[in-house]
Amino acid sequence: VHPENEDWTCFEQSASMDIKSFFGFESTAEKIAMKQYATSIKKGKEIIEFHLKQLEEEGITHVPRWAPPPAPTTYHGLPVSSARAIPACSSRAHPGSTDVLPGSPD
């Protein structure tokens, strides 16, 4: 969020390069890196503008500010999780079964 106007979004991008010794070609290597960086910035801007146009075409002119999801509630001190255990099923779990599982030593 922009510090002066909360309806604006700030986007910052930075890069750094450290060339110790490149046999006298430090300046050339720096120019090549800056050219690549400038190309990346331009491409990133094009992508953002593409998605903004798509939203506009769909009639979306306002997107509410993102807020982090609420912290999960706890149950008896343990976090609540939607993950469930996958039941194990193998030939060893069912005595008398003759099924051979792929990758098993049998």
UniProtKB/TrEMBL annotation:
Protein's name in the database: PRELI/MSF1 domain-containing protein
Residue ranges of every copy of the PRELI/MSF1 domain listed in the record: 1-60
Family matches, as Pfam families: PRELI
InterPro entries for the chain: PRELI/MSF1_dom, Slowmo/Ups
Highest taxon in the source lineage: Eukaryota
Stored PANTHER family: MSF1/PX19 RELATED (PTHR11158)
